[in-house]
Amino acid sequence: MDEESDPVGQAAESLDDLWPPFAAVPPRRGRAPKPQRAVRDSALSRDEIVRTAVALADAEGAEAINMRRIAKELRVGTMSLYWHVGSKEHLLDLMLDAVDGEQAAAAPSGRWQDDLAQLARQERASLLRHRWKLDFMASRPSLGPNELLRVERSLACLDVLDIELRIALQILMTVTTYVTGSVLNELREIHVEQEQARAGLSKDDIEAAMVEWTASLRQSRLFPRLLRIFDEGIDPDAAETRYERFEFGLGCVLDGIASQLPS
Description:
Blueprint: H1 7-14, H2 46-60, H3 67-74, H4 88-100, H5 112-129, H6 133-137, H7 145-157, H8 165-198, H9 203-220, H10 224-231, H11 242-260
Helix pairs in contact: 2-3, 2-4, 5-8, 5-11, 8-11
């Protein structure tokens, strides 16, 4: 898709001067600091570098975000990257903002719970698609142009409530916190599955180990309620119920918020 037919790309370009002053990304009118040995490669672009870095991180995790590795994927010298990104921190900010820009937002419908639910689902999908995001969220706040647009659109969904801005922000933070925590739990479950697969454990091996463990729990007589979960055949970490569990929790969060609003 070329730049003229990509309204999201055009919006990102027009907002490129709006990075906060403490971000690693310099304003578009300036340039990032570059090592003296940097060599310009006219075939490269900043967007191509960011796309390559995101694809690498998606495939191999946060540890793959390495300037040398990205240069190898692009078949250029490492120093050529510094004409477009000033540092690894600069690149990380660009990557986080790029994936934030993937989330298309519909105009507010007037049904704030439906609108926030849709935004929550989009954020969950983004975090599961780009799992490396969670490795950086605690250490570098994402405040690039696309994230600012996401916050603006989220606040617009709450205009219909006519509430204090402070309360609107608390609502958004509550929903965001739920989504992040829910995805962290899902990734824990996925990690356990992957570890079991790497260990070569079959379904029968896992079930046999669970039977032995359950017998030990039963013998202790300390966990009557917990044992009911196993006796009724409930798997709280079942992959096929992850979306259902997310939706249940999201509904509880939104209903709880609604109950706290001024009448």
